[in-house]
Structures are given as C-alpha cells and as structure tokens.
Amino acid sequence: MQTWNDSAPIYQQLADRLAVQLLDGSPPEGQALPSVRALASQYVINPLTVSRALQALVDQQLIESRRGMGMYVMAGARQQLLRAERHRFLEQEWPALRAKLQRLGLSAKDLNWETPQ
Amino acid sequence: MSHDKQELLVSAQDLTLRYGSKTALERATFNIPKGRVIGLLGHNGAGKTSLMKALVGLLPAKGNLQVLGLTPRQQRGALLEQLCYIPDVAVLPRWARVDELMTLMSGLQPRFSAERARTLLRRTSVGEKDKIKNLSKGMVTQVHLALIAAIDARLMILDEPTLGLDVLSRKNFYEMLIDEWCDGERTVLISTHQVEEVETLLSDVMMLDEGKLVLNISLEDMDKRFVALSHDPATAEAIASAHPLLRYRQQGGRSAAIFDGAPPADIAALGERIRPSLVDLFVALTRNPALQAKNV
Fold first, then answer.
1. Cβ contact (<8 Å) for A10 and B275?
2. Predicted confidence band at A2 (pLDDT cuts at 50, 70, 90)?
3. Sign of the alpha-carbon torsion through B239, B241, B246, B247
4. A68 CA to chain B: closest CA distance, Å?
C-alpha cells in the first residue's frame, strides 16, 4: 500500500505528489486529471481526501474545475510550480547545502554536472 | 421530516447492550450519514461486533435505534433486504460454485444483481465455475465482497473483513471497496484491527473502549482537533507538564506527544507540529484512564 509520513495531513501529501507530477508534465497543461474515483482507487484513499487534495491545487491555481468534466491543468501551471519550487529550494535547501559544500571544501567545478544516461 | 434526518442512514441514542452482567455497549449515541467510509476501531471485546449486530437487528439493544428509517429488532426482515452485511464469522459454503452462489443470492435477495456481481468478479482472478473450496482465503473474501456489493443498498456493514488475509489480498479488497462501493452516496461501516492500513481509506472514525464510544469524528476534524508535536527529548519534561494524551516515539526515534486541542503557545513552540496518526490516537484514547475520566 502507499506509504504516507506523519509530517503533514494526507490530503496535503497527496497534493504535493500530484504537484510533482504536474511539474514533470503529467498530465500536460490543458489536459484533464484522472477523476476523483480513479485517484482514490489508485492511491487506495478516501474520495473525500482526494477532493481535498484537488481543492488545495485549485487554491494554488494549478488546476481548475470544469463543470461536469472534472479537473484540468491550468495554462502556466508548470511555470508557476517551477517558480515556487526554485524559490523553496533557494530559501530552504540551498543554505544547508552551501554550508555542507563549504565545510567539505567543494566548489562548483568539483561537482559532476553531467546527467547520467 | 427535516432534510438532515433524511441524510442519516443510522441514528442511535443511548444504545446499551448487556450480556448478563457484562456490558458490551454503554449508552452509545451516534449518527451515520450517507457517503462515508467509517472505521469502527476497538480492541478485542470493546463492543465492535455487538454494535454491528445491534445495527442489523441480531441483538436486542436498549435505547433508540433507527437504521435506514427502520427499527432493526422489529423490522429485521425488511432491513436485511436493504443493507449489506458481512459478519465476522461469515463463511461461504465450501461445496458451492461461484455461479451457484449468485443463483442463491438472486433467490434470497430482491435487490441483488447477478450482472453487477459478474462485473465485480471480473476484477478478480476468480471464475464463475470455480468452487469455493478451491479458492484461497483472499479470493473467497473477494467473492464475498463482490456478492454483497452487488446488492443495491445504501449501507454496508463489514465486521473484520480482512482478518487473516495477506497484505496483497487486503489491498485488493480495499481497492474493490473504494472503486465499486464508495460513490459519495453509499456508506460503509468497517471494523478492523489493522488501524494503520485503513487510515487513508476512512472519512470518519468511531472508537470503542470497553463498550464506550470514546471518539466519533471525521478525519478532517481529527486533524484539526488533535495536535501532535514532534520534539527534542530534552524538552520532554516541559511537554509532559502540559498533560498530553499520549507521549510516544516517532519512526526515527524522535519524541512526540499528542494533545487534545492546541497546547499552550509556549509548549507548542517547543516542538514541530506533525500529523497525529490514527494508530497513536487509538492507543491514546483506549489506554488512557485520565481521558476516560474526563469523558464521563
């Protein structure tokens, strides 16, 4: 079964997972998300919890509800997520990472920037 | 009749059940609305099975009880036509074939749809000509759920349906339940020991402790009402002074505490707010004499 941690409410964790998928272009902008029931079944999670997660994404203006048709990824959602994630990385993760690199005496040229195939 | 009343599938006031001198259920008052997945949690002997039996009219209980607008004890026949129930001792006859059971159900249950049962069975690896005695325990339970979920009803009552099943069978069972039963209108009441596994499935939780209903809350409200703090072991004494319901250790060894309601700000500042898990809350509410005293 899916594992959820105790850092945040489950609907929030599901919203975060769906946001990561949106960032990867799944589904692409303008396309429909799976239905509440499909998501509920996929994650074995209560449909009400799924609805709350989707509502959280609606509140962030990443997806929108089209009457009678379900949820669609909004235009610009990926860009917006990318901005938010970059901001979060620079604010929250980078200071600790920079401190560690400095402690280890590593600079940008010591790091492998090639993406492994 | 008010609109709210129509939406209630079960309404119980002061439900009390005794076996001789032993009290199985003590003045339980609760409502069950439509469209919910309700977990009925309790240790062995807490009263889960008794409560379910009272709901379907198999045990006489004192107090007021309406199920689907009927009085279970007096109108059991009519009631059993309108709800789905798998008792904890449920068995399917070993000699029967799956299609024979469907014929049997068609004769017994006016609201049973063989076509629907076939659709449900197609989700599983069970064939209609299979004999029950040749199926694994997990498959038998799936057949049972398929037969029961093929009844056009609004309320399903499952008493420990996944007991003794391996993890994959349990997952298949819950997937079928979520997929094929939960449509926002129908409700299922499900008792289980496997608290961790059903947590994400539930919309509401009812906890019984020694016959008393110690908690009846939606998961959404549970997240709001109960506050769990993850904290440094060094602050344990200060945390304890604020009377948490339970102190425990998180995975990874950090200390944590659950509070009923927000702790004072100076205490909250000592830790980081985390999600209280249903298991921890279950332990807190069914093993904490102080809280039980508070609830009386």
1. yes
2. low
3. positive
4. 16
Phi, psi of B16 (to 5 degrees): -130, 135
Contact yes or no for B30/B52 (Cβ under 8 A): no
Could you tell me the pTM of the whole model?
A: 0.85
Q: Which of B36, B59, B58, B50 is nearest to B204 (CA)?
A: B36
Asked if the Cβ–Cβ distance from B274 to A6 is below 8 Å, we say yes
- Kindly state the tokens that stand for A102: 């400095």
Which DSSP symbol is given to B14?
A: E
Degrees, nearest 5: CA angle B159-B165-B169: 105
Per residue in B143-182, pLDDT (tens digit) is 999 999 999 999 999 999 998 889 888 988 998 999 899 8
d(CA A32, CA A54): 12
Does ipTM exceed 0.85?
Answer: no
Q: Are strands B62-67 and B204-209 parallel, antiparallel or unpaired?
A: unpaired
3-state secondary structure of A33: coil
pLDDT at B296 over 50: no
Task: Compute the distance between CA of residue A71 and CA of residue A37 in angstroms, rounded to an integer.
Answer: 12
The whole-angstrom separation of Cα A98 and Cα B203 is 43
B201 in Cβ contact with B176 (< 8 Å):
no
Residue B154 has φ and ψ, to the nearest 5°, of -110, -10
Beta-strand relationship, B246-249 and A70-73? unpaired
pLDDT at B40 over 90: yes
Tell me the pLDDT tens digit for each residue of A16-71.
999 999 999 999 999 999 999 899 988 989 999 999 999 999 999 999 999 888 99
Give the per-residue pLDDT at B8. 94
Query: B204-209 and B8-19 as β-strands: parallel, antiparallel, unpaired?
Result: unpaired
* C-beta atoms of A46 and B37 within 8 A: yes
Q: What does the alpha-carbon distance between residue B43 and residue B162 come to, in Å, rounded to a whole number?
A: 16
